[in-house]
Design brief:
With 510 residues, the chain is of the alpha+beta class. It is built from 23 helices and nine strands. Helices cover 44% and strands 9% of the residues. The strands form two sheets. It has a five-stranded antiparallel β-sheet. It has a four-stranded mixed β-sheet with strand order 3-1-2-4.
Amino acid sequence: MSSVAALPDPHVCERARLSRDPRFDGLFFTAVRSTGIYCRPVCPAPPPLPANVDYYPSAAAAEAAGFRPCLRCRPELAPEDGAWRRGDAVVARALSLIDQGFLAEHPVAALAERLAVGERQLRRLFVQRLGAAPLGVHVTRRLLFAKQLLTETALPITEVALAAGFGSLRRFNAAFQEAYRMAPRELRRSLQEQQAVSADRSLVLRLGYRPPYDFAAMLDFLRGRALPGVERVDGQSYARVVGDPDAPAWLRVSPWPSPRGRPVHALRLELHGVAPAKLADTVQRVRRMFDLDADPHAIAAVLSADARLRPLLERRPGLRLPSGWDGLEIAVRAVIGQQVSVAAARTLTARLVQRHGPGVALDGAPGLDRLFPDASTLADADLDGLGLTGARIATVRAIARGVLDGRVGFGVEQTLEAFAAVWCALPGIGPWTAQYLALRALGHPDAFPAEDLVLQKAASGDGARLSTRQLRERAEAWRPWRGYAVIHLWREAALAAAVAPSHIEAEVTP
């Protein structure tokens, strides 16, 4: 089949399947012809005979070939193939739009137009990489998310259909029956894993990742930047307010408990008061924020070739790229943090939030009582007396107005170069800030703020400082994972100084 090139080597697939190697979870799927079922490589069921096995590069490809998802290993829990699904490739940007529900409201032709490619070319690229057409990928992803909600929650099936992006219960039942040869109610009756929905409509979902994953380092990064009232980070979890003033909600992310000491490569997402129509978007935001689809081994294979980065990757192989919940929030925080410490930036931003962030009342959410202000509020907000310079105030307002009128945004269809160029056109936004926004707001794996002083010093390894040009030239060998090199070097510099990374985010004027 034409999609074979997207698969790991068949011998690698076979070894990974037989050893149930979690490093390959989501990188391919095993389809068993004798049962008509497809599985993750980590499936605990007895392995089938090799003669009965086919390998597919995606769940959508397996379903397009007529296979149904395994009820035991649950393919909907597999992380995505982060080795290529992120960044500037056409298919990567298309998948990001599909994740946001683009094809629920637009035809494939509109998706191709958004990406500035022909529809035929887009279909060809999808088949080559995923073994399925764009619409097939979209439908499979919706059905697998619905399957997760049916399995892990007691949400009414009508709300499951809404959460999965189906316009009606009839359409959902028909699509589910056609794909899985059973009705949603039959699947739910056959499962024993359901969790009750509490009075506050809270849900618990499992979000898988490929090991290793350094969750403690992720919490450390977020803890130093957590805004009082908006976010709360303790030793085991991250929580924050989400939604809007009319329908506020909150979430908490923590490690999934390990039964009897057996590792579970997943995070536990608690959702409190999130409307069904917002569930898919919320899950995708959390996956991006915590970088759950990264492939640590693909990243290490490139970065470990650099003598400076190799020991860092060996010491912290599970370090991930910490993104943010909302692009506007990250942009405002980045501007406020220019040329000041992380702690000072947090203090200044907290003042802004207390003055202009809508207050909310949430049950069971200690310390969470405020939303970050939106663009319409910030565009004309009184920011005097907060400790911000006049230039910073002007830039914050320019960002808000630019978001409102569409001059700037956080659309995932943009390439890194196009994104940086648009943002640098705003007053007060330089190359460092634009690249930092790509890193934290988009989670772009190749974003690289080469003007950063800490990076220039840390990259040399001997205390000398590289110039911006020297650093960029050296980092060419780190593509397409320069963003991960940034996180490793920042983390190393912070630990070496034995203090919080107070100088890491200082904007440097070229």
